[in-house]
Amino acid sequence: MILVSVDDHLVEPPNLFEGRLPSKYLDLAPKVIRTENGDDVWTFNGSIIPNIGLNAVAGRPREEYGVEPTSFDEMRPGCYDIHERIKDMNAGGVLGSMCFPSFPGFAGRLFATAEDKELALAITRAYNDWHIEEWCGAYPGRFIPMALPIIWDADLCADEVRRVAAMGCHSITFTENPSTLGCPSFHSDFWDPLWRALSDTGTVLSVHLGSSGRLSMTSPDAPMDVMITLQPMNICSAAADLLWSRVIKEFPDVRIALSEGGTGWIPYFIDRLDRTYEMHRLWTGQDFGDRLPSDILRERFLTCFIADPVGIKLRHDIGIDNIAWECDYPHSDSSWPLAAEELEAATVGVPDDEVNKITHENACRWFQFVPFAHRPKLRCTVEALRAEAAGHDVSIHSYDQGRFERTTGIALGEMVKRVNV
After folding, report:
1. CA distance 380 to 57
2. The pTM is what?
3. Those residues with Cβ within 8 angstroms of residue 289's Cβ, 6 or more apart along the chain or in another chain
4. How far apart are CA 222 and CA 163, in angstroms?
């Protein structure tokens, strides 16, 4: 197999902004400090943003998973060091990776909190330049670049899409629901400049689970397992919001990736879309011409999964050309470094041409990613990459320094309180 992951994550290194901002902003730029508890946290605009444990647990035993903040020395270096990340990718047999941000938030909403919007703009652009030039640029053909949006200004956001597209970046991370962030919804015309820029540059709107700033919760005292189980519902809501929006009809070239949302629920969702259209379009005013909503979803939405045997079984109901695989390194849902074995087991009996679409061809096509321009296919397989990583340590290590309480059975309300603090 050749593996290209359309959803991984990076923990930003402390030197991210060095040499990338005008001198007048140096004192105002985000910085990493160490707290009295030994946590490494980012600070910006009066906010403290910790690295939550579940976001960087690659290589840790599962009993040490939790939501407490961590320090860099408690993470596997591949979380934040690009050279170590490549070693970990090779050891896992992963050729390509698209890395979502951590401390700025999936939609860059942290930077948008600055009252000085010139500062916010400078920081967002500096982040994007670092991601494209240093993180992705260090190893051409190994990363799909991704940019943060200018979430507070649609015209500036469109300008940024065009600017980064000229640098070879064709993915922008965005929110599931702008209205929860205090922005106009997908149904307004506010975002029209963005939709035009995405269309003109072939850039994909990558909507990551949890990017709306709200979690799917039932009650404050529900166990953590409830929130983890319901996470795909955020993406389901975003898919419905976007599919029925004017964006789909008025901007036919806009493409959307439903990142980390899974695929097993998609067949029922498709049935529900078509049933809704059949029964209600005459009074709701929806009109897709001679097509069904299911046709639109298969054409315009990329569905993404980490480990989803049910989705693989139902792949033709979903659409074999709009399914892509994710590794989710270094998050807690990832099976790194054995994700290839997990995927192989789930695709037993699936024809090779369909496996290839799921593992890398769809991702390359959607995101204009051309890894084979940098290395021949024979050097891109799981086997070949692991041979390059011979001797690289991928064993499980304990990073727990004894300062964290165990979080087994923690309630949702308590978890949200800790994260907000």
Report:
1. 26
2. 0.92
3. none
4. 44
